[in-house]
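Trying the structure run again after the queue cleared.
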Amino acid sequence: MFQYEKTLQYPVKIARPNARLAKMIITQLGGPNGEAGAAMRYLNQRYTMPLRELQGLLTDIGTEELSHMEMIAAIVYQLTKGLTPEQLEAQGFASYFVDHTTGIYPIAASGVPFSAETFQSTGDVLADLHEDLAAEQKARLTYDNILRLADDPDVRDAIRFLREREIVHYQRFGEGLRLIQEKLAQTTHPHNPYACNPSFDQSCLRRRNR
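Done. Tokens:
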């Protein structure tokens, strides 16, 4: 069960609308490395994690990604609030405006709508954790690119916070990977902790007794 607090995880207070910037930042809502995919990835992967510690890790981070979706949506909303159709068109927002006016819709900066094809949930603890590590680095890179293009201090402040959280998530997934490697080393050949998936491959356990 989730308990919703009616405040953003980090405040978003943007003084100057800028639809051109909104078009870039919205990619972290529905783009290939965005927060919607991250939340769905982790909240679905958690069910097949073989350790309660890993289930808790995926639940914690997946829940936080929901709050990051909320922050990105707030940024995009504030960057487009009050602009006229003419201003939106002049700032490169016309194609989005035709379909959604200034409603929030999960889409990439390239215009591709959000798709579940941007993330995986394999049921294999090692495959999923390695994907999670890579996903956090790709999200961090996307925020780096946004910071390279954004000169609004209000926007940069919120984006820096989100970037820092991607680094923390990467570190926590690294801790989770080390934990499962230690557990696998106890039940498989000690020099090959990648031999099989202990979630359903019972041969992992049989090898220990040979």
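The longest helix spans residues 153-187. Worth checking whether this holds up in the mutant runs.
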